[in-house]
Amino acid sequence: MTIKGTDLYYQLHSELCHVFTSPKRLEIIDLLRDGEHSVQQLGEMTGIPQANLSQHLAILRQQKMVETRRDGTCVYYSIADRRLVKALDLVKKMLVERIKVEGRMAAELAVEMKK
User: Fold this and answer.
1) pTM above 0.85, yes or no
2) Burial readout 3-17 (b: 16 or more C-beta within 10 A, e: otherwise)
3) Which of 7, 60, 95, 111 has the highest Cβ tally under 10 A?
């Protein structure tokens, strides 16, 4: 069985987007946007237990979204491709606009309900 190019593309796209289904992984990516952090630092900043953090980092590594650097026994993580940050910034702008619109709609509804 051969896989058509488009089928492969959509499969890879789906696997990549799976990373974004976890709020904790999004938080980790956001923390790494300004520079590398050790596993210990990420654990302290996120409050994610070590075992769970390792699982999230493994998924991010598998999808090549983060890269590692070892210094003795300490492992540091950083964003592998800065385009990831740009892509997430675009999504953030879209969500902020949606929240503003929905917030206005909720406020207007509340005013209408008081009448």
Assistant:
1) no
2) eeeeeeeeeeeeeee
3) 60
